[in-house]
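Issue: ligand-bound run for S-adenosylmethionine - logging full I/O for the record.

Environment: standard queue, default settings, no custom constraints.

Inputs:
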Amino acid sequence: MARRDRPDSYSKQARREGYPARSVYKLEELQRRLTLMRPGMRVLDVGAAPGSWSQFAAKIVGSGGLVVAVDLAELPAIEGTKNVETITGDICDEQVIARIVELGPYDAIVSDAAPRTSGNRTLDTVRSAALVEQVLSLCDRALAPDGNLVAKLFQGGEEQRLLHEIRRRFSAGRLVKPKASRDESFEAFLVGKGYQA
Ligand SMILES: C[S@@+](CC[C@H](N)C(=O)[O-])C[C@H]1O[C@@H](n2cnc3c(N)ncnc32)[C@H](O)[C@@H]1O
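Outputs:
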């Protein structure tokens, strides 16, 4: 079994706590350190399947808030949550964007969206950066003033340019690698706090 497919302590914890993916602990750490979401907020979760970030965000925003979860893949029903609205489709598709905008504006946009990896790191990082650019364009169309952003990026040369783009739009921007990101993974998360529309 490949190292990344072996269940580690985060996978076991996710199973115990009823989350469909171990990636929830990346958002949990970012939330603990940076308070990106609060009760009552409207959150857009980009690249949401199989749904662990949406499930976590739905708990934070509570019944007075809403999570809009969008993915290429259809999202399975999330147990115990009534405050999650799903959109199936590509975030580059104008119809999908129109629906995202219609359900906004959002107080936070969180994106774990990632291209299917090809094994060619250059290609994968270019595709990942293109997804981040698309998420930034969603911020410009649907993020409320003072809103927050998290966006996954495969590191490979675009991080400083994208960080600059974030700092241009937000009061503060940084690049974070959470503990739950596997050591061998080249992913990191761009964080923007305080959107200045
Ligand atoms: C790592 S998974 C997300 C895991 C999720 N955060 C969770 O915790 O359950 C990345 C997701 O990004 C989605 N994705 C990639 N490109 C996309 C696009 N252009 N539009 C919508 N979703 C996309 C993929 O379908 C995949 O489900």
